[in-house]
Structures are given as structure tokens and as C-alpha cells.
Amino acid sequence: MSFKSDIEIAQETTPLKITEVAKNCGVDEKYIEQYGNYKAKIDYRMLKDLKDQPDGKLILVTAITPTPAGEGKTTTSVGLADGLRKIGKKAVVALREPSLGPVFGVKGGAAGGGYAQVVPMEDINLHFTGDFHAIGAANNLMAAMLDNHIQQGNALGIDVKQITWKRAVDMNDRQLRHIVDGLGGKAQGVPREDGFEITVASEIMAVLCLASDINDLKARLARMIVAYTYDGKPVTAHDLKAEGAMAALLKDALKPNLVQTLEHTPAFIHGGPFANIAHGCNSVTATRMALKMGDYAVTEAGFAADLGAEKFIDIKCRMAGLHPSAVVIVATVRALKYHGGVAKADLNNENLEALEKGLPNLLQHVDNVKNVYGLPCVVAINAFPTDTKAELDLVEKKCNELGVNVALSEVWAKGGEGGKALAEEVVRLCEQPNNFQFVYDADASIEQKLDTIVKKVYHGDGVVLTANAKKQAQQLTDLGFGNLPICMAKTQYSFSDDAALLGAPKGFTVTVRNLKVSAGAGFIVALTGDIMTMPGLPKVPSAEKIDVDENGKISGLF
Ligand SMILES: Nc1ncnc2c1ncn2[C@@H]1O[C@H](COP(=O)(O)OP(=O)(O)O)[C@@H](O)[C@H]1O
Ligand SMILES: O=COP(=O)(O)O
Ligand SMILES: [Mg+2]
């Protein structure tokens, strides 16, 4: 069976003018800054003016532990919002902006798929409104000012071996992970080991996602710790007088972007941290706008419920005072078979036995959402064209037998029409009482918080800190950062820190090898296993299939 590609579906649709989309969801035109006919930035001052307007219900879309292709959170978020509108509800979706890393790498774009997409998908997946370029420029201005300070005499006494700030580029480029720069002699800089991280892992991305306005942004940027002195004192962006210029670069990037789904549902897209190496959620301002403009605000958190959902709750909701009403856990036949031991190449072949063997991964995520996060949830079986009826029926049957709330989602194939059953169930769940809770108390020690996450969310035996991480934990506590929430940087392919441990592994510990404070964002990043903040391209990058014709029409993006 052949299907139209995502980009073919997107390009055959006629979107509404963005001013009409804005008007339809109640955004006053005085807040709209158009970027062409189909994109706009919305001034966050609208939130101050609407502060007395009641919020809608917040729905989080998460997933089971994914295959490298992803299981359809973004697709389901879009299709659910469309489905809610199909049943007469005022729904808005809030998503992250795609990074060029995956776009040209393995996963491809992040604008949904099939008949559940946001448009214009080419823009959204490529330059969009320039926010990521602005973040990269601000990040690298910081790096240039830091190295220039050292070159100009190093009055602050920065220890070049204790520089924590990396350069950034929005690309999967392993060649830049570990570099030596400042070569060429006295006038060319100070030689040192350096490195790049992907822009979505930059602390500035997290700051942009958590800041409420330009003053808050500037204050956060100023607090960012970029290095330590020879006597171990932190050096901040403010010490280097960098926050003003960085904020100037980010003035427009701070405003959320408004686009639409294929069915003209309003979609706020803003910020794009990955959930394995960063906190994995779109901006608070975009989420708040969705809550003001919709009776139901659907948002997503990256990768599975042990990563994006945990950080959505313990970082984003904790900092912004958000309280989700319901959670959708996306599951797919292919991912369940993957957890049941089927090789990636064979995932399109029916295999009921492997499917059943993979269920423990789903059940453990359901258990976490219900009993650790305390939220009502529904499993959305995201139907792929390669799924057989027997497989889809088995997942639904097993979930029902185990008392797991489940709904079939056909949004990829049918758009909002395929999301009506899921929408009805989500509306019901939003009216249920919920015992929303954070996983840990922020005032616990850094090690206790790490241990709690490993035990309660990953179902491991506990955390192990390397000697280096232990020293850093003590240093950060002594500097007064011990009460910050934790941003776990861990593989997305396993509950554990070992990507090979699929399903619902037991009897493992998670090793934290490095702790770094993101003092501007307000959390501590814990690097586990061999996770890296600069991914690499695969053997056959998706970029090889992307092209543009003489009329500027792009092909090959998905
Ligand atoms: N039901 C489906 N059938 C076919 N392809 C799908 C389906 N759902 C998602 N996809 C595709 O799978 C990939 C991952 O979907 P996405 O929504 O980005 O997942 P996530 O946000 O969880 O990473 C995308 O290329 C998307 O087009
Ligand atoms: O950070 C990861 O996001 P996805 O799970 O949407 O790829
Ligand atoms: Mg996604």
C-alpha cells in the first residue's frame, strides 16, 4: 500500500491566513507580529493582560519508551487537538520547535505526521522564525566574550580547565564534540580544550523556555554560570557583562510562534529542548497562551514518560505552577514488539507473542503516570498502517484485562476524525479528581533526589555517583544550589542508563558521571551513562533525501 508522504499531504492543504487563526482563537490583533501569511509571533504581554481570564484544562501527551523513529507524541498531540475540536471543544496545541539535528539525522522533522500535522511544515522543520539561530548566536556570543576575557588578561582569574560553557550549533556534528581552539599564536587566542553542544541542549534554550518576560530572561541569563576561577568561585554571564547583549539577540525569540494544524486548529510552537539531554518541554509562555486561548490545551514532553513527562512535572510544572488534568500515553505496536525483542528490521511483521512480551514497558509507564505522578491517564494506541487487526486488538484486550484505560487513535490516517474517541476519553478524564504530585521534594539533597528518580520512576535499585559527581554535588550544595530540581540526561531507549536494556528492566543502578548547574534555568543537569549533548549523524542521514526545485518547492522532508 502506498501513502502520500507527510510533505505531500501538507503541501496539498490550503491553510487559513494566520490572522484568521489568531482571531478564531481570540488573540487580539495588537499582540500579533506576522511572519508572512501563515506564521506569527504573539507578544507575551498578552498573558499579563489576560491574567484574570480562567485557564483551560492542561493535557500532557507522553509515550512509552520509543524506537529510534519515535512513536507519535507530536502526531497524537496534533490529532487530539483536532479531535477535541471535532467534538465541539475549544482546543489549542502547544509543541516544541524541531531541531535541525534530527531533521537531517535519523528521526526527521517534528511537525507531526500524516493527517495530523502542523503547517507550514517545511518552515517549522527548517528555519521557522529564526528562534534557534538567535539562541545559537546568543550562546556563541557568550563563548566569544568568555574567551576574549581570558585573552585580554583574565582579570577574573578564570581557570581554562574549569570552563563549563560550550559553543553551540543546531546540527548533529560529532566532529565538534571535543575540539582544541585558540591555536595560532599569542594574538590568536588562548589554546584550550573546547567543544560544541547541539543548540537545543544549550542552557539558553532552557532559559528561553522558562522565562516569563524580557526582564526575567535577562535575570536568568545573568545568573548562568559559565566557568569557575582557579580558587573554585563561579563565573557568571553577569561577571562578563554579557546578559544585555544576549537578551537583545533573544528579544523576538522570546515570543511564542503561532501556526495551525491541517484542520486549522491553533498551534503554539516555541522552544525545543530534547528530553534526553535537556528538559524536553516547549516554553511556559506558549503553554500559558494555549491555556488562555483554549478550554483544552494539549502539550507534549519529549521521549517517554520516564524522561519528558518526569521533567515536565518536576521542572516545568513545579516552576510555573502548572497542574495537568490528564495524560495521554502513546503506545505503538511497533514499539511494543521492539521491547518484546523484535529487531528494527522486522517490526512490520505481525508478531503477537513479541507484542505481549513488550507490554511490561507500557504497564510500567502507566503505573508511573497514575501512581507516581498521580494523574488520570489513557493509553492511545497510535495505529500504524503496518499494524494488523490482530495486533491492535491484542493491545486493547490486554490493556482492558489489566484495567488500563485505552483508546485507539487513528489520527495519522484520519486527522481529527480519527481522534474523536481519544478526545471523548480525555474530556472525561479531565473531570476526574487527580492526585498530582512531584516525584521528589526539591529541598532533599541532590543525591537523594537522584536516587528517588531512579527508584520511583526508573524502578532501578538506586543511583551511583562517580567520585567526580560526588565532588560536584558537594560543590553545588556549598554554592547554594542543592535545592534545585534535577534534569536527568539519560538515554531515551531504556528506563535504565543502558540503551540495550529494553522493556521494564530490574536490578540495575543508574550512574551519574557529571553534575552541572544551569543556574539561569534553575536546575541541575545530571549526565548519566554515555549520554552526549552533541549527537552524530547516522550512516544514511535523512538530509540525503531532501531537495528543493526551481520553484522553491522542498521535497524529502518528513
Ligand atoms: N500512526 C502513524 N502511522 C505512520 N507513521 C506515523 C504514525 N504516527 C507517527 N508517525 C510518524 O512517526 C514519526 C514519529 O512521529 P512523532 O509524532 O514525531 O513522534 P514523537 O513526537 O513521539 O517523536 C514521524 O515521522 C511521524 O510522521
Ligand atoms: O526530545 C524528544 O522529543 P520527541 O520524543 O518528540 O522526539
Ligand atoms: Mg515529537
From TrEMBL:
Pathway: One-carbon metabolism; tetrahydrofolate interconversion. One of its GO terms (molecular function) is formate-tetrahydrofolate ligase activity. Gene3D superfamilies: Domain 2, N(10)-formyltetrahydrofolate synthetase, Formyltetrahydrofolate synthetase, domain 3, P-loop containing nucleotide triphosphate hydrolases. Keywords: ATP-binding, Ligase, Nucleotide-binding, One-carbon metabolism. InterPro entries: Formate_THF_ligase (IPR000559), Formate_THF_ligase_CS (IPR020628), P-loop_NTPase (IPR027417). ATP binds at residues 67-74. SUPFAM superfamilies: P-loop containing nucleoside triphosphate hydrolases (SSF52540). One of its GO terms (biological process) is tetrahydrofolate interconversion. It catalyses: (6S)-5,6,7,8-tetrahydrofolate + formate + ATP = (6R)-10-formyltetrahydrofolate + ADP + phosphate. It holds the Pfam family FTHFS. Its EC number is 6.3.4.3. HAMAP family: FTHFS. Belongs to the formate--tetrahydrofolate ligase family. This is Formate--tetrahydrofolate ligase. It comes from Pusillibacter faecalis.
